[in-house]
Structures are given as C-alpha cells and as structure tokens.
Specification:
Structural class: alpha/beta
InterPro entries: PPS/PS, PPS/PS_sf
Catalytic activity: (R)-4-phosphopantoate + beta-alanine + ATP = (R)-4'-phosphopantothenate + AMP + diphosphate + H(+)
CATH class: Alpha Beta
CATH architecture: 3-Layer(aba) Sandwich
Number of domains: 1
Pfam family, one: PPS_PS
Bound molecules: adenosine-5'-triphosphate
Family: Belongs to the archaeal phosphopantothenate synthetase family.
CATH superfamily: Phosphopantoate/pantothenate synthetase
Enzyme class: ligase
CATH topology: Rossmann fold
Order of helices and strands: HHHEHHEHEEEHEHEHHHH
Number of helices: 12
Length: about 270
C-alpha cells in the first residue's frame, strides 16, 4: 500500500495513508501533480465531515449500486487519483456490477493513460477502456472531451469520481445518468450528478460494492425503489448541514481523537 511507516494507532491514520498513496501515485507516474491539490481540497471537506460516511452518503451509495446494477451499459471512470487511492476496490466494483472500467483523464497523455491501465491490470482488471479515444463528449474542447466510443460514449450510467466540474456538467448534459463521488457538496460535479456521493472515495467505493453484492439478486422493482427513494437535493443539503455543524465541539475545537474509530459503525 505505502512504504511510509505510519503508526496504526495514529488518530489520523487513514488520512495519512491516503495522502501517501497519492504521493506514491505521482512517483509511479499515474497521478498528476494537480492531483495533490485535489486531494488537499478533498481532505479539508473530509475533516469537516468527521472523516466518516454520513447517513445521506450511505443512501447515495446504495442508490448508486442499484443504478449500476439496473444499467444496460454501466461504466466506471478512472483518473489518476482514483487509480492511486482505490485500484483494487474499483476493479472489485466493476466485477460486482458488470461495469466497464475506462481511464479518463483531464490532462490526457498517452503515457499516463497506459500506466493507469497497467496499474489496474496489476490489481486484477482484465479489460481497461479509454486508450482508443475514438469518441467525444459534446460541449468540451480538445483532449478533455476524449472518451471511448464503446465505453463512456455508449454508456447509460457513468460513475465519475473526483471529476472536474466542467467535464461532469458536460457529461450530465448528454443525458447519461451520472453518479459522482466528491467530498465537496457545493462542487459543480456534485451539483450536476443524478446521484452525488459526498464521501471519501476510499470509503465510498467499498461501500457501493457491498451494497451491490447485497442487491445482486434483487428484482428490478426493488432496485427501482432504492433509486426512486433517493433524493439528491436532500442528500446535498444534509452534507452541507453536516459540514456547517461540523465535527467541532462547543469551543470550536476539532475533535481530533478517534475520528476514524466509528467510520465502520457509521456505515452499518
Ligand atoms: P468544481 O466541480 O467545483 O469545478 P474542480 O473541478 O475544481 O471542482 P478539482 O480541483 O478537480 O475540482 O477536485 C476534484 C474534487 O474532488 C474536489 O471537489 C475535491 O473535494 C474532491 N476530492 C478530492 N479527493 C477526494 C477523495 N479522496 N474522495 C472524494 N472526493 C475527493
């Protein structure tokens, strides 16, 4: 995972491990340096959310699983941060929902595309899309628009974690159903998603997989019920309220101790 020694009893263990995974991703040539800035921004929101999966995110994760399972052609988009943080977990989610994996980069270079595809194969992926680059998302200029025609180009449901707001908006306007994972409930990406998951990707992806496994034999009516019961506006509002209320005590000090202890419990 990382070759940096972090004591497991450190109160901010998960956060530090995540940070080192991004660093390792940069060293391996799969994550861009801008990825560090995105990570820093995400960390700040995660800190305010208490570094846990809030109930509205749990509902979004279940709705996302139901959407992926009921889709004709689901695709999971993978960028440099996603590949660095959850390579094995995203491959598992693709298997659990029979979704395609597609490498999709804001700053597209063939070298980084290849490295990410190889990194995913090392973590169990059999087929990785994105390298053909023979399709386009309408409304975007240059390389930012490039996708695979038989991947994201042909998808009906797309999971776009940690996506640039401009691209998320353009993708949503094509009529595809978009699931976004983004810790900022006010970002354009979260705002343009049919299902915004306001949670750290390191918790969100395994949670969606777990829900997908639980729902794998569910009839389509039950999947539809899970999807229809999810209210995106309510979820975004709940996340904003959680951030405003914060995990700060009455004196305004962050509750630094044991922030991660209840992460599992909060998602049960
Ligand atoms: P906007 O959508 O407002 O235009 P942006 O395009 O500027 O945002 P980026 O700087 O590319 O967004 O950052 C991507 C987003 O990913 C940020 O909103 C950040 O909060 C979020 N993010 C970063 N790391 C994580 C993570 N580990 N898990 C979930 N979300 C994350």
């Amino acid at each position: 995972m990382t070759d940096v020694e972090i004591p497991a009893d450190h109160p901010r263990y998960e956060s530090l491990v995540t940070r080192h995974r991004i660093e390792a991703g940069i060293e391996k040539g799969i994550t861009s340096r801008q990825g560090l800035i995105a990570q820093g921004r995400g960390e700040a929101f995660d800190y305010l959310l208490g570094e846990r999966t809030i109930p509205s995110a749990r509902a979004a994760e279940r709705a996302a699983a139901a959407l992926l399972l009921s889709a004709d052609h689901p695709v999971l988009s993978v960028n440099g941060n996603v590949a660095a943080l959850v390579p094995e977990e995203i491959v598992e989610l693709a298997a659990a929902t029979e979704a395609d994996l597609e490498v999709n980069l804001f700053n597209r270079t063939e070298e980084r595309m290849e490295r990410i595809a190889e990194h995913l194969r090392e973590h169990g992926a059999t087929e990785v899309k994105g390298l053909a680059g023979d399709g386009r998302i309408p409304g975007l200029s240059h390389e930012r628009a490039t996708v695979d025609a038989d991947g994201i180009g042909a998808a009906d449901v797309v999971l776009v974690p940690l996506e640039d707001g401009d691209r998320a908006e353009a993708l949503a306007s094509t009529g595809k159903t978009e699931i976004v994972i983004d810790l900022n409930p006010g970002s354009r990406s979260s705002r343009s998603a049919a299902v915004p998951i306001v949670d750290n990707i390191v918790r969100a992806i395994p949670n969606v997989t777990r829900h997908a496994r639980e729902l794998s034999d569910a009839p389509i009516e039950e999947l539809q019920y899970v999807i229809d019961s999810f209210d995106r506006e309510e979820a975004l509002e709940a996340a904003e309220t959680a951030i405003r209320r914060g995990s700060f005590d009455d004196d305004g000090d962050a509750e630094a101790d044991g922030r991660n202890d209840d992460a599992e419990a909060n998602d049960e």
